[in-house]
Specification:
Helix content of chain B: 40-55%
CATH topology of the largest domain in chain A: Aspartate Aminotransferase, domain 2
Order of helices and strands of chain B: EEEHEHEHEHHHHHHEHEHH
Number of strands of chain B: 8
Distance between the termini of chain B: 21 Å
Largest sheet of chain B: 8 strands, mixed
Strand content of chain A: 5-15%
Oligomer: heterodimer
Radius of gyration of chain B: 17 Å
Number of strands of chain A: 12
CATH class of chain B: Alpha Beta
Largest interface: A-B, 57 and 46 residues
Mean pLDDT of chain A: 95
CATH superfamily of the largest domain in chain A: Type I PLP-dependent aspartate aminotransferase-like (Major domain)
Order of helices and strands of chain A: HHHEHEHEHEHEHEEHHHHHHEHEHEEHEH
Strand order of the largest sheet of chain A: 1-7-6-5-4-2-3
Strand content of chain B: 15-25%
CATH superfamily of chain B: Alpha/Beta hydrolase fold, catalytic domain
CATH topology of chain B: Rossmann fold
Low-confidence stretches of chain B: none
Largest sheet of chain A: 7 strands, mixed
Mean pLDDT of chain B: 96
Distance between the termini of chain A: 70 Å
Strand order of the largest sheet of chain B: 1-2-4-3-5-6-7-8
Low-confidence stretches of chain A: none
Number of domains of chain A: 2
Structural class of chain A: alpha/beta
CATH architecture of chain B: 3-Layer(aba) Sandwich
């Protein structure tokens, strides 16, 4: 039996989306630091503007450096196409705005990045879009929350900061039965640990700022289209299945079929909202993606060792990491994340908020800052920072206790990471 | 747009542009297991050149109803039926892969309805690898994977597509996977047994353009020569660094090749 021999993940991470520069022969992806592109003639210009032919017009819409990044992420994720954005939050808003109008409704996991939670809770309602939050571990709650006007089911592969493992195949089936897509923020896992499209997810997004870039040097986001959701059959997405006056009556599903979503996202969303990624940031993120497989292996190995260490510490009340047998989603994690459950873990210190404060102020190697997925180990107290806009009730429902510490385990020598945590834990317990 | 052909709904993309009966008609016919959207980077462009563009879904494909037709000859007979239903007297026909066989056969059978012919990704015969045929019969994912493996040029497998953000590998794969069960097998089987290409080419008198991919492993460019030779006055454009899926792989080069034809 003949078998196709396609490039594997590690190879795609280095090569997908790029041909050596035809003019200079440059092997690295050049930074096309330009706002605009010369047209061949007026016909060419008109055809580009009218979405008749592929090509670049203006960097707000697309850019050759950014296009390499988009294509590479689409390749790694297994999608038909991608649109890169100025940040992960821009990617989330772009997707929502592409899918629905006022009156739309979202069913979302209650355990989300604080910024996403804020967008759904406070900002989107101003534009007539409501969200119902549900327990990410309760598929029936997703089902019960879906209404006739629901246009999206949303969650994270691993909840933030609760580290709940989303049961993607089950939630996808629930969403599809209702004729709506499942969109997943896969920032914590990256396509190296899970290809979410293999589990029924329709749209993936990432904050590229995190593991994908991996070095804390550039902010970016991306939304990736699986190409598998049948917008026409659903009948709930007029932005994709009805003529759009903005492009002389263009019907995206009719003309672009499997790429309807990603085409509309670029043609309308990047044009009108304008949250484009800078080409230089695209370059930095591409450098990170080249080593994504290697870094993720080390991130996971270190995180597993750190989780085991914390689990054995008297100063630690609990540890939340799916690779630990004590984690409620341990078995699900083994199924969905066989290469590891990422390198974000949360834990509670004996002594609550005050002990947590002392711990964070005592770490030396780990950095106290608002990010995850850096090559360096990072630490934060979500209740007072990333999730501080959430009400006490929302914090409780998201499982964010006052003493919770979130750790993003880096790729330093794990003995050094553990030594730093050990001394900070000791300080945290002093009067 | 939708019309009723042989009692069944038939669908065609028009580039989302209003149809004007005074403009020349161009009918685009897709390949095995595909649908109208394989022409997504051509239909709108042709329409806005001032043509009535019809990227059809053959029966049983895309949004057209009915069972997939069993032979190239039946598919060829469907073309004038579609034209009748759509109010098209005469049209330029553009076919890709299986669609090139269909349009070639239609041009032979219905010379009065065909103004000119463009054959893309065609060869004198299209024997289908038995493993591919078997995988298609079992509706296995392996079938589209093999088509992508053989059908995409090496350049397209790496990427760097002119359409920003498009990963043509998966775009092609998903397009094939969207076909209803049995459709890809039906189409591949029809290609496999069709032996009339050279004879049809010998009888075609209209202007004909071949567009071929230099790196096409499924329908190698050299295997189109018997057809061009049989026609005598056909023109040929070979696109460099291009495989069988030229519509998606090298849309700008296809555009340049089609410009004079359309």
């Amino acid at each position: 039996m003949v078998k196709p021999n396609f490039a594997k993940f590690d190879t795609l991470a280095l090569h997908a989306g790029q041909q050596p520069d035809p003019t200079t022969g440059a092997r690295a992806v050049p930074i096309y630091q330009t706002t605009s592109y010369v047209f061949d003639d007026t016909d060419h210009a008109a055809s580009l503007y009218n979405l008749e032919r592929p090509g670049h017009i203006y960097t707000r819409l697309s850019n050759p450096t950014t296009a390499v990044l988009e294509e590479r992420v689409a390749a790694l994720e297994g999608g038909v196409g991608a649109v890169a954005t100025a940040s992960g939050m821009a990617a989330l808003f772009l997707a929502v705005a592409t899918l629905m109008d006022k009156g739309g409704h979202i069913v979302a996991s209650g355990s989300l990045y604080g910024g996403s939670h804020n967008l759904f809770t406070y900002t989107l309602p101003r534009f007539g879009i409501e969200t119902t939050f549900v327990n990410p571990r309760d598929p029936q709650a997703f089902k019960d929350a879906i209404r006739p006007e629901t246009r999206l089911v949303f969650g994270e592969t691993l909840g933030n900061p609760g580290i709940e493992v989303m049961n993607l195949p089950v939630i996808a089936e629930i969403a599809h039965e209702a004729g709506v897509p499942l969109m997943i923020d896969a920032t914590f896992t990256t396509p190296y640990l899970i290809n979410v499209f293999d589990y029924g997810v329709d749209i993936a997004m990432h904050s590229l700022t995190k593991f994908m870039g991996g070095h804390g040097t550039a902010i970016g986001g991306v939304v990736v289209d699986s190409g598998r959701f049948d917008w026409e059959a659903s009948g709930k997405f007029p932005t994709l299945t009805e003529p759009y006056a903005g492009y002389h009556g263009l019907d995206f599903a009719e003309e672009f079929g499997t790429q309807a979503f990603v085409m509309r996202a670029r043609a309308e969303g990047m044009k009108d909202f304008g949250a484009c990624l800078s080409p230089t940031n695209a370059f930095y993120i591409l450098q990170g993606i080249e080593t994504l497989p290697l870094r993720m292996q080390k991130h996971v190995a270190n995180a597993e060792a750190v989780a085991e260490f914390l689990d054995g510490c008297d100063e630690v009340a609990w540890v939340n990491y799916p690779s630990l047998k004590s984690h409620p989603d341990h078995e699900l994690a083994k199924d969905l994340l066989p290469k590891g459950a990422g390198s974000i873990l949360s834990f509670g210190i004996q002594g609550g908020r005050e002990a947590g404060r002392k711990f964070i102020e005592s770490v030396n190697l780990a950095s106290h800052l608002a990010n995850i997925g850096d090559a360096k180990t990072l630490v934060i107290h979500p209740g007072s920072t990333t999730h501080q806009q959430m009400s006490p009730a929302d914090l409780e429902s998201a499982g964010i206790g006052e003493g919770m510490i979130r750790l993003s385990v880096g790729i330093e020598d794990v003995a050094d990471i553990i030594a730093d945590l050990k001394q900070a834990l000791r300080v945290s317990q002093k009067g | 747009m939708e019309v009723i052909v042989n009692g069944l709904k038939a669908h065609a993309a028009t580039g989302s542009r209003d149809l004007n009966a005074d403009e020349p008609a161009v009918i685009l016919v897709h390949g095995a297991g595909l649908d109208r959207t394989v022409w997504q980077l051509q239909t709108r462009n042709i329409a806005y050149m001032g043509r009535r563009a019809y990227a059809v879904d053959l029966p049983g494909h895309g949004r057209s109803k009915g069972k997939a037709l069993n032979s190239i000859e039946e598919m060829a007979d469907w073309i004038p039926a579609f034209m009748d239903a759509a109010g098209i007297d005469k049209a330029k026909l553009i076919g890709h892969s299986m669609g090139s066989f269909v349009t070639l056969e239609a041009a032979e059978r219905y010379p009065d309805r065909v103004e000119s012919l463009c054959l893309m990704g065609i060869s004198d015969s299209m024997p289908v690898h038995p493993d591919l045929l078997a995988a298609a019969e079992r509706n296995e994912r392996l079938a589209p994977e093999l088509i992508i493996y053989w059908g995409l040029g090496e350049k397209a497998k790496v990427g760097g597509h002119p359409h920003p953000g498009l990963w043509v590998h998966n775009a092609s794969q998903i397009l094939f996977e969207n076909a209803a069960d049995g459709v890809l097998f039906n189409d591949l089987a029809a290609c496999n047994v069709y032996t009339g290409a050279v004879a049809a080419a010998g009888n075609v008198k209209c202007e004909t353009l071949f567009i071929l991919g230099k790196d096409d492993m499924m329908t190698p460019a050299r295997k189109a020569s018997p057809l061009a030779d049989a026609m005598g006055n056909a023109k040929t454009t070979v696109i460099e660094k291009c495989g069988h899926m030229m519509l998606l792989e090298r849309p700008n080069q296809v555009h340049d090749a089609l410009k004079g034809f359309v």
